[in-house]
Amino acid sequence: MNHEISLVVVMTLVLLADLIIGDKNKKICQIASIGLFLAHTIVCFQWSNSYSPTEAFSGMYLTSEIHMFVKNMLNIGTVLVFLYAYYWNTHENESHAGEFYFLTLSTLLGMYLMISSGNFLLFYIGLETASIPMATLVALNKKREESAEAAAKYILTAAFSSGVMIFGISMLYATCGTLYFDGVSESFSETPLTIMGLIFFIAGIGFKISLVPFHLWTADTYQGAPTSVTAYLSVISKGAAAFAFMCILMKAFSNYPDVWKEILWWIIVVTITVGNLFAIRQKNLKRFLAFSSISQAGYIMLGVIAGSDQGMASLVFYTLIYMFTNLAAFGIISSIEDQTGKVSMDDYDGLYDTNPKLAVVMMLAMFSLGGIPPFAGFFSKFFIFMAAAEQGEYLLVFLALLNTIISLYYYLLVVKAMFIKKSDNPIPTIKIDSMSKVGLIICTICILALGFISPLYTYISERSFGF
Amino acid sequence: MEQLANLAPYVLILPLCMFLILGLFGKKMCPKVSGIVGTTVFGVVSVISYYIALQYFFSGEFQVGDTYQQVTLFNMEWLRMNQDLVISIGFLLDPLSAIMLIVISTVSLMVHIYSMGYMHGEGGFQRFYAILSLFSFAMLGLVVATNIFQMYIFWELVGVSSFLLISFYYFKHSAVRAAKKAFIVTRFADMFFLIGILILSYYTRTFDFDKLTFINEGHVDAVFNSDLRTMTFLGFPVISIAMFLIFLGGAGKSAMFPLHIWLPDAMEGPTPASALIHAATMVVAGVYLVARLFPIYSFETPHVLQMISYIGAFTSIFAAIIACAQTDIKRVLAFSTISQIAYMMVALGVSGYGGVNGLGYTASMWHLFTHAMFKALLFMAAGAIIHAVHSNEMDAMGNLRKKLPITHITFLIACLAIAGIPPFSGFFSKDEILVAAFETNKWVFAVEYFVAGLTAFYMFRLYYRIFWFGEPEEGYEHEPHEAPLNMTFPLMFLAAVTVITGISWAFGKVSFTELISSDFTSYEIHTHWNIALPSIGAGVIGILIATFLYLEKTGRPNKAVSYIKKPYLWAYNKFYIDEIYLFVTNNIIFQRICQPIAWFDRHIIDGFMNLLSWVTNKASQETKEVQSGYVQQYAWVFIMGVITITLLSIYL
C-alpha cells in the first residue's frame, strides 16, 4: 500500500499548497508540486527494492514485484509529462496549474488501484477514479472550444462504456457468485451469460486501451485536449489499462483461455489494421499519433494473447519503451505547439533546417515507433512478437508484421516532411525551456540505449515468472 | 579471478567509447589531440589485456595439473529468445583467447603509434582513429566471444570496419572499388558461415563454445547427443556440411583460394590499416575460428579437416608463386600474407587432438603469433618506404639501405624470420608446421617444403629490390629520408619481439607447447633437426637465388624471366582469377540468372506491392466516414461491436 499512501499524501500537499500559496507564488507552487512528485517517485523506487508480495482488504488489493515495477514506470512517465507541461502551465494555463497537477495525480491513483485490484469492484472504482478526473483534464484548456468538445465526447463515451462494463461485471457476479478474481476463476463455466459478461467487460476496458471498435473517441479527444494531457492519455493511461487487463485475464479467466483468446485475436487484427489505415490520412500530428497509438495498442495486446510469463514480460517491456518513445514525440509536438501553435504535418516541412536537434529527436522517435533496429522500439516489438509466436500465434504475428510495413510508411512521412521537403514558411528556430529539454534528453537516451541494456529485460522477465 | 573479471569489461568498453567519442566529436578536436587520446586509451587497453593474459598463463590460478582451465570472466545475457536460445555477450578466457589478446593489443597499439606519424597531415585523421578503435573493439570482442553468435556479431563488425578502412581515401575510385570487393566477397562467405552456425546450433541447442567443444569419451558431447550425427543430406553427413560451411566463412576472412581475391586489392587502404587488418589480425580470424571449434573438426568431421589442409596447401603455393611476380611491394606482402595464413590452416588441417598429436595446432597458433609480429613489421616498414619514395612500385626504389638505416635493418630481420632462418622466431614456428605435416601427410609436407623455399626467394627479391639493386633510372625526386621516431619505434619494437621470442625459444626459456595445445595440456617437444636442417637449406637456396638475381642491377632478372615467359605472365596476372570471376558474374550470373529475377521482381513483386498499397489507400479512403465526429454514432458502433462479438462467440 506504500505507493498509494505516499501518493495520497503528495496529492493532499499539492492541493493545500495550491490553496494556500498558489495565488501569490505560482511558480514556486508548481516547482514544489513537481518536486514532491519526484520525491514520491524516488521513494517508491527505494521501497520496491525491499518489498514482498502483500494483500490488503482481505484480497481486494494485491501487490507483487511486477506491480511495483509498473507503478514505478507510470511514475516516471508522469514525471516526464510534468516536465513537458511546465511551459504550458507557466504561460497559457497559469491560472489552473494547481488543478492540473492534482487531477493528474488523482488519475494516477486510480491507475494504481486498477493495477493492484484483486476484485472487480475495486478495479471498477480504480477505473472510474482514473476516468472522471481525466475528462476534467481534457477540458482544462478553457479558452478553446475544441477542448470542451473533446471532454464532452470523452465523458459521454466513458460513461457509456463503464455502464457496459458494470453490466458485464454484474453478469459475472450473477453466474459466479463472487467478484474476487480467484473466485471467478474457480467457478467460471462456459455459459452464454458468462461469455457475455466477459465480452462486456472487455468492451469496457477496450475503451480505455482504445481497441477497435471501442476507439472512436480517441482521435477527437487527443486532438482537442491540451498536448500534455494527450501525452498522458496515450501513454500512461493506456499502459496502466493494458497491464491491468492482462492481469485480470490471467487471474480471473485463466481456466478458459480459448474463449477470450479467440475474441482478442479478431480485436487485435482489426485494431492494428484500422489504426494504420486511419493514420495514413491524418494531417494533424496529434490525430496522427492518436491513430498510431491505436495500432500500438494492438501490438501491446499481442503480449496479452500470448498469456504466458513471457507475454507479461514483453508487454511490460513494450509499454516501457512505448512510453519513452511516444513521450519523445509528444515532447517535440507540445514544445512546438506551445510556442508557435502549429500542429499540422505540413507545418513540419523543413524542420531540420531550422531546428535540427528537434528534428533528429523526432526522427528517432518515429524510427523507434516503426520498429527499426537498433532503436529500442525494435527490441520491444521483437520480444512481443516472440512471445506471441511461442504460443503458436503465427498467423497473427504475420499479420502484425505486415502492418508494421504500413505503419513504417506513415511514420516515415513525418521524417520525410522534416528532412526532405522544403518550406517557404518553416517553423522558426525555437528555444525549448529547460524542463522540456531534460525530458527530451531522457527520452532520447532511453530510445537509443534501452534495447541494449539487456539486464532490464531480464529484470522484468524474472519478476513476471510465476506471476 | 575476481580481479580479472572486474577488469575484463574494460577491454571492450574502452575502445567502443573511443570510437563513439572520436567518431562523434572528432571534428571538434585538433587532429593531434585525437591521435594522442586514441593511442593513450588503447595503451591502457593493451596493458589490461597483457595483465589478463599474463595472469592467466603464469599465476597458476587457472591451471589444474598441466591443464589450463577455460574460464568465463563475465557473460551478459542480451537477447533471450526462449529457455534454450540465448544470445549473450561475454568474455571467455583460455589459452587461445589469451594469445589472441596479446597479438591484437600489441599490433594494434603499434599501429596506433605508427599512424601518428604516417597519417600526419592527412584529411580525416580523426576518422581514421575512430575506425581503428572500432576495429580494435570488434576484433577483441571476436576473440573473447563466449558463444558462436557473439563471434558472428563481432565478425561482421570487423568486416564493416575493414570496409571503412579500405575506403578511407573515398575520393579515390580504386579504393572504393577495392572496399566494395572486399565487403562483398567476405560477406558472401559470411552467408555460409551463418548457415553453418544455424545448422550446428539448431541441432545442438546451444551457441556456447564451452558446450560445443566439451569432449566426453572421444566425442564432442553436444554433437554426440544430437540428431546431427546420424543425419545426411544428399549423401553427405549434415555435421560435415555445417562444419564446412563454417570453415567457408573463415576462408572468406582468411583469404583462402578461391575467396582470396579481395585481399590484394584491399591494399588500397592506408598502410597502417593494412598492417593491422590485412596482415596481423582480421585475416587470421578464420584460423582462429577453426582453432576455436577444433574439437568438433577433429572428432566429428576429420575429413573436413583434411579438406582444410588441402585447400590450405593449394592456397599457400598458389599465393607464393604469384608473390614472385608482383612489382607493387604491398601486393607482394599481401600475397605473402595469403600464403602464410594458408600455412596456418595447413597446420590445423594436419593436426590431431591431444598431446604431441596436437603439434599442428600448437604450431599453427605459434605461427599466428610470430607471423602477426613480423608481417605487421614488414607492412609498417613498407609504409615507411612508401612514405620516403612516394610510390608503391619496386621500380621507383633501390639502394635505400643507407638512406633508411632503421627500416633496412628491421626489414631484414623480418625477412629472415619469414624465410625461416634461425634464430629468428619464424624458423621455429614454421619448422613445427613442417614436422606436423611430415608426420601426417607427406604430400602436404612436400608442398609446404617447396613453399618455404619460395617464400625465402620472393621475400629476398623484395628486400634486394628495395634496399640494393641500384637506384631507379630517373633518380629520386626528393632525397628519401628516414621516418620520424613515432614510425620507427614500432618497427624496432616488433623487430625486438621477433628476435627475442626466437632466441628465448632456442635456449628453451619459453616453450610454446607449455602455453597452448589442442587440449590445453602442456607437453614437451624437441627440435627435429632431420626436418629443420633441410628446411633451412630450402630457405638458404631461395635467398641465394634472390641474391644472384637482384643484388645488383644486371640483366639477369630479365633473362630469367625470358626462360619462363608464359608462367611468369600467368603469375604476374594472378592466374587471371579476377578475370574469371568477372566473366562468371557478368556473363553468367548477371545475364542468365539475375536478369530474369530482376524482371520478376520489377513486374510481379512490385506489382503485388503496388496492388497492396492501392488496396490500403482505397480502404483508408472508404472507411474514413466512420470517424464522423458524432458521439451518438460512436456509441452506436460501440454497442454494435459488443453485440456482434457476443453473437459470434456464442453461436460460432
Short account of what is shown:
The complex is a heterodimer of chains A (467) and B (652). By secondary structure, chain A is mainly α. Helix content of chain A is 78%, strand content 1%.
What gross morphology of chain A would you assign? globular
If helices are DSSP runs of H or I spanning 4 or more residues, what is the number of helices of chain A? 19
Distance between the termini of chain B: 64 Å
Q: Tell me the β content of chain A.
A: under 5%
Quaternary assembly: heterodimer
Share in β-strands of chain B: under 5%
| Overall mean pLDDT of chain A | 89
* CA radius of gyration of chain A: 21 Å
Fraction of residues in H or I helices of chain B: over 70%
Number of helices, counting only DSSP H or I runs of 4 residues or more of chain B: 26
Order of helices and strands of chain A: HHEEHHHHHHHHHHHHHHHHH
Explain this structure to me?
The complex is a heterodimer of chains A (467) and B (652). Chain A is mostly helical and 467 residues long. Chain A contains 19 helices and two strands. A two-stranded antiparallel ribbon of chain A has the order 1-2. In chain A, β1 and β2 (61-63) form a beta hairpin. In chain A, α4 (97-116) packs parallel to α10. In chain B, the strands form four sheets. Chain B has a two-stranded antiparallel ribbon with strand order 1-2. In chain B, a hairpin with a 5-residue loop joins β3 (71-80) and β4 (86-93). Chain B is mainly alpha-helical. The model of chain B has no long low-confidence stretch (mean pLDDT 85). Classes of the chains: A mainly alpha (467), B mainly alpha (652). At the A-B interface, α6, α8, α9, α11 and α16 of A face β3, α25 and α26 of B.
